[in-house]
Amino acid sequence: MPRFLARRVLGALVILLIISAITFWLFYAIPRDPAMMSCGKNCTPENLAQIRRNLGIDEPITFQYWHWLVGVFAGRDYGGYGYCDAPCLGYSFANREPVFGTIMDRLPLTLSLAFGAAVVFLIAGIGAGMIAAVKQGKALDKIASSVSLLGSSLQIYFVGYIAMYFLVAKVGVLSQPSYTPITENPAAWFSGLLLPWLVLSIIFTANYTRMTRSQLVEQLSEDYVRTARAKGLSQWNVFFRFAWRGAMGPIVTVFGIDLGTLIGGAIITESVFSLQGIGRLALQSVDQSDLPMLLGVTLLSAGAIVFFNIAVDAVYALIDPRIRLA
Amino acid sequence: MSFSRRNFMIATGVVAASSTVLTACGGSGGGSSSGGDAPKVTGSKTMDIPVGTKADSTGPAPEVAGATKGGTIYSLEQFDMDHLDPAQIYVSTEGAITVPIMRGLTGYKIDEKGGVTLVGDAATDAGTSKDGGKTWSFTLKDGLKWEDGSAVTTDDVRHTFERLFASFITEGPRYVQQWLEGGEKYKGPYDGKSLSSVEVDGKTVTFRLNEPRGDFNYTLAMRGYALVPKKHDTKEKYDKRPFSCGPYKIASRSIGKSLTYTRNPHWDPKTDAIRNNYPDKYVFEFGFQPLAATDRYIADKGNDQYAVPIFNEVAAERIAQVLTNATLKKRVLTQVDTVTYYWPINTTRIKDVKVRQAINWAWPHQQLQTIRGGASTSEIATTILSPVTPGYEKFDLYGTTKKPGGDPAKAKALLKEAGKVGQKLVIAYQQSDNAVKQAVAIKNALEAAGFTVVNKQIDKSTFYTQIGKIDNGYDLFAAGWSPDWPNGYSVFYPCWSGENIGDGRSNYAQLDDTSVNKAINTAATITDSEKANKAWGAVDRQVMELAPVVPDYHSIRNWMYGSKVGNVVYDAGNTCVALCKVYVKK
């Protein structure tokens, strides 16, 4: 297992390096001048040149990338704007802050949102999928399938506003969406994020219900399940020891990607509920042409997906020992 | 006062007529209402701000009837402030939000009746002038302290004005820099050199100007000239965390997310005639779209009951609901503004005055007003000066009142007369939903009048940089202006004088007409305010006859607030809600 993980981590670092190079080139090759954002309204050509020098953006792009890469490991000096400690992912001219600090400031909310929603949609989605598979063709299956179809066709911006209007403004059973760090006030953390979790999980729940159902139905019709039944194993044993375990592989894979994507930013959910997480940060960066911040957020998203893929591989290896040999 | 990209984005965005403009100096509460009938721009009281006496400048500020101390005031805003270094502040929201933490030599005092007076803020009075306004002196009050308990000194005042010349100060107003003697060669204090035209003698600071400026004390009331401590000046980094000498100080700040003020224990109310300090704390939260914020103000739950907006006005989607519901309307502060939004015509490209006049005749004012949210948020403009700005003269040269939807036939006839039927017009606008809708309406109207229109979307972050270039390649683009203090000079010199043409300057139309330049310079020297106002009204007409601009609208602003916020009044000095006058209802 350690060798397997080491190999995967090494591969992930190479992937991240390639992603950073491509993203850096794409962002900096487009005709936008980050120095203009820092230079202001009464900008003189001399000031602009000075800012370009301070920020190192008067250099060829390969040098810029090299300096950026060095900054990630050793930090970097941005002249009058201050020193950016390692890991320095760049300096945001719009926020006048190092990119890494801002990302770290917004990340706890996004992690809370992603993991909280994941708990809801995993429990609800897999639970409903299991019931549907067990009760295949019966009323419960039809209800679960119909509800999941309805759920997957809904949009967060629609459900979010409706839910806010009724559950918060009219009936008042839920709190206004907000973020309080869990370390500060766990109850406020929970109540402030409950509505976003529920809304965000609606679509995912529907997908996981459908996926779990189809995987389980497939597994339950496999020969080895039939053999297990023929050997007289209990229904419970057959279901959880054989069918469920077999069905989990694809679900875990998709879950890893979904979680990585969510950590990269649930842009719509954060926007609907006015939460300031990574998604809003990405949106704001696009709006302000804040390329360094956008690069940082892109790398975070890529890193999250890569990380959870490794985690999924590890879990996969636990579920299916054949993976370790591959 | 120019108009930042943020202002434009909001003005043309989802907000009906959100018109956050650069630090305008409005006036004595003209055209404001809270819960009553919606005011109209035309007919509203002109925003005159008289100069107060030494007694007016002496603290403490008048108490607000029924106000009590304590509690927290919240705010749900769309954006964080771009700048908090006063020298970089030229946006009204930035000016308004920094009232509790910054003080200048002069400022605007709001009295019990909502009237506004120019008074000494850190200075004992609104200043004394000599040489017809070429020399101005201000004496610092006793007992002024920074948030660390150290005294505010005249050295700090001198440093405040000298640092305006530093290369990293690029966004704030440029008036004082242009007027101080020797300013053209001065590069700031950081290499150890002083500016000799700022003299310090005991507690008095004297400014020597290169031209008579009777309104210099009004200029200094702009947040761009608030004091900065020499000892704590962190240069570029000061923009993130300024030092306070007001009743509050910054307790925490997460850029783009939140800003919190707590009390500054070293502030003495006896030194301050302008600010009250009722709440214990202010918490500004950013990232709320106007619609989301409006819905929360309507719901009025939890901390939102203690919330008051600075930037977010009632969203266009909710304006009818809010203004037609008597209960909700009670929690709305409606205010006529001094800003005029307009579309400058690039006179270096559209040289024929008849073509420019044809654009004016064809303009679809009414359609654009509907897109903005209707008459409750804006009034169609026919002049450059707002009806509430001193000097305003009512006239309508291009038939807007009779045909607010435009007169394509008249426009076509003018084009024909000029031999320019089919004239190509390149219109630049920012990328936003509302701007796209407006661009379509404008294109249709102008094409119906015989123009060939090419619409070009421009990235919001570089819009003003692009239209501010001399050789920008565009014929028509949106902008807006509100006076920095209540007279025509701060409208016409920055935007319509040929002396202010250049990359990054605010004469976007690049109008350089000898007679207009002369009229502006003549009006600027008139010391009698009544005569000066008449002269500015005449300049307005003179400029409009040349049609270098299409006046679009004057804004009416609607701010909704929580049910437990008391005394929500207008701060004419910053064209926003007066933060230092609100209190938490018990």
From TrEMBL, chain A:
SUPFAM superfamilies in alphabetical order: MetI-like
InterPro entries the record matches: BPD_transp_1_N (IPR045621), MetI-like (IPR000515), MetI-like_sf (IPR035906)
Family stated for the protein in its record: Belongs to the binding-protein-dependent transport system permease family.
Segments forming domain ABC transmembrane type-1: 107-316
Coiled coil location: none
Cell compartment(s), UniProt: Cell membrane
Chief localization: membrane
Cellular component terms per the entry's GO annotation: plasma membrane
Lineage: Bacteria, Bacillati, Actinomycetota, Actinomycetes, Kitasatosporales
Name of a matching Pfam family: BPD_transp_1_N
Topological category with respect to the lipid bilayer: Multi-pass membrane protein
Protein name: ABC transporter permease
Transmembrane segments: 9-28, 113-134, 146-167, 187-206, 251-273, 293-319
Keyword Transport recorded: yes
Domain of life: Bacteria
Key words, A-Z: Cell membrane, Membrane, Transmembrane, Transmembrane helix, Transport
PANTHER family per the UniProt record, alphabetical: DIPEPTIDE TRANSPORT SYSTEM PERMEASE PROTEIN DPPB-RELATED
TrEMBL record, chain B:
Swiss-Prot/TrEMBL keywords: Signal
GO cellular component terms attached to this protein's record: periplasmic space
Signal peptide segment: 1-24
InterPro entries: Peptide/Ni-bd, SBP_5, SBP_5_dom
Top-level taxon: Bacteria
Stretches assigned to the Solute-binding protein family domain: 118-502
Pfam families assigned: SBP_bac_5 (PF00496)
Protein name: ABC transporter substrate-binding protein
Organism: Streptomyces doudnae
